[in-house]
Specification:
The complex is a heterodimer of chains A (209) and B (283). By secondary structure, chain A is mainly alpha-helical. Chain A has 9 helices and no strands. Chain A has 2 domains: 108 residues, RNA polymerase sigma factor, region 2, helix turn helix motif (Rna Polymerase Sigma Factor, Chain: A, Orthogonal Bundle); 73 residues, Winged helix-like DNA-binding domain superfamily/Winged helix DNA-binding domain (Arc Repressor Mutant, subunit A, Orthogonal Bundle). The chains are: A mainly alpha (209), B mainly alpha (283).
Chain lengths: 209, 283
């Protein structure tokens, strides 16, 4: 058992160094509770990164699992000596997995030999948060002016730059840029503010009972 | 969760998600948001929005027709507004008495000056009024030619903005009035002319010009037009009117959002204090 779960708070909150040290030590001892805590903290970051970098590709979900499992396996082996570098360590693994995917390089066989006693990393509370975010996003989009909605779609979904959007919509690129910033802020503030107001993550979700 | 004070996190998040950052920029942003709860939340929010937009695409928007650019001087209907504003201004000046100063007297800083320029000092006999007018931010914003990315400046506009940058509002007004109505910089010319009128103490003229900018539809100057309309109302001691324009400024979520939000808090606090003192006095 590591840490006091009642005091765990929001997984997005900053983690003090002492907390990292305790987490890394517990992971090296193969503590499954620590592995769940690790997942609660890092899964959102890894998922956000890979989904963004892979532009919503279906392969993102598989790579997220790979990153989480590789990270836990490496931490079990005690590969991280300086616990203050925990975040950088996981980020490096995530990049490694991502760039390997991009360059289509076959991953080393060791990295694919995952232990079979890993905990279930799925979290009901995270799924609920995702669903809540989806509903909030829908509401935020519904409140947008049709042109702003189109600008956001061309930016976020189709990855077009303001100049190209401007050409498509018959506007100046400065106006597109300005509207894009405003609309982005509006929807992101709406979703992020209300998501924060949601009840805190249930750390016991997914825990074997 | 503390908001991220790194600029411009939200733009980075959108570009990161759109895949338009270079690899090193993307990595820099990752180094940041992996340690920044606010930016991670922004990114997750944008991902959710992107998912929804991908699931249910926005209906096609027809290319915008070329919007009619409002001519300067303003058309007849706007003159009515100007006349009304002039009447209000005259009444206001009379009410305010002999100590009244115009913004131009109160504000000596030239265009391009920062917010360190003095705020309007349209004094009044009432302490509440004095406080309201003191809230007005009449410092003229700097003009940056770089906003005209890749576009050559029309000769009169260039001349007018050079005068504006020197703080020569009369020269600026004279040159900007010659910018052809069909020129793409006409809206900017109208906006900066209004600011010059504000600087000259012509609140009604400034208001008419800024309203013209607003009525012209979305433009780069729209947010600033709302903001300066709020300043005009503050200078006139109209806290309720100023609040209305500040709310519209904030709603645009642009560069002036933060400034407008802070000022609106002060305006609302002042309004509350005024209402409370009115209630006390009436008892």
């Amino acid at each position: 058992m590591i840490g006091d779960h009642t005091n765990a708070g929001n997984p997005l909150s900053g983690q003090p160094a002492l907390e990292d040290e305790r987490l890394v030590r517990a992971l090296a001892e193969g503590n499954q509770e620590a592995e769940r805590e690790f997942a609660v903290r890092f899964l959102p970051r890894v998922r956000a990164m890979l989904r963004a970098r892979l532009r919503g590709s279906d392969v993102a979900a598989d790579l997220v699992q790979d990153v989480m499992i590789e990270s836990i396996s490496a931490l079990r082996r005690g590969s991280l000596r300086d616990s203050s570098k925990l975040t950088a360590f996981v980020l490096a693994i995530a990049r490694n997995v991502l760039y390997s995917h991009f360059s289509d390089v076959k991953r080393s066989p060791e990295s694919l030999e995952f232990p079979d006693d890993l905990p279930d990393l799925r979290s009901l509370s995270e799924e609920l948060e995702g669903e809540q975010r989806r509903v909030l996003a829908m509401n935020a989009i519904a409140g947008l002016d049709p042109t702003d909605k189109m600008i956001l779609q061309l930016t976020l979904v189709e990855g077009l730059k303001p100049g190209m959007i401007a050409e498509k919509l018959g506007m100046s690129s400065d106006v597109v840029r300005q509207r894009k910033i405003r609309a982005t802020r509006r929807v992101a503030d709406y979703v992020a503010d209300r998501s924060q107001n949601a009840s805190p993550v249930d750390y016991t979700a997914g825990k074997a009972r | 969760m503390n908001p991220c004070d790194r600029v411009p996190a939200i733009e980075n998040a959108a570009s990161y998600m759109a895949g338009t950052l270079s690899q090193s920029e993307a990595e820099q942003f990752e180094d940041h948001y992996w340690n920044c709860p606010a930016c991670l939340a922004y990114l997750q929010a944008l991902e959710a929005v992107g998912d929804e937009l991908a699931r249910e695409p926005a209906p096609q928007v027809a290319p915008a027709p070329k919007r009619r650019v409002l001519a300067w001087p303003v058309p007849v209907w706007a003159l009515g507004a100007v006349a009304a504003a002039v009447v209000l201004a005259v009444v206001g000046v009379r009410t305010l008495g002999p100590h009244t100063e115009t913004p131009s007297q109160a504000q000596s800083a030239p265009a391009g000056s920062t917010s360190s320029a003095p705020t309007a000092q349209i004094a009044s006999s009432s302490p509440v009024r004095q406080t309201a007018t003191e809230l007005a931010d009449l410092a003229l914003p700097a003009f940056s030619g770089s906003t005209l990315r890749g576009a050559g400046m029309e000769a009169h506009f260039e001349e007018g903005m050079a005068a504006y940058s020197r703080g020569d509002c009369k020269g600026a007004l004279s040159a900007l009035a010659k910018v052809p109505a069909e020129d793409k910089q006409e809206r900017k010319a109208q906006f900066y002319s209004a600011l010059c009128r504000l600087h000259e103490g012509d609140l009604a003229g400034a208001e008419a010009g800024l309203r013209g900018v607003v009525d012209g539809g979305d433009s780069l100057e729209l947010e600033a037009a709302f903001y300066y309309l709020a300043q005009i109302d503050l200078a006139r001691n109209d806290a309720a009117g100023a609040h209305g324009y500040l709310v519209r400024t904030i709603a645009l979520r642009g560069d002036l959002e933060r400034r407008a939000r802070l000022q609106d808090q002060k305006v609302l606090a002042l309004k509350k204090a005024t209402d409370a003192s009115g209630t006390t006095n009436s008892k």
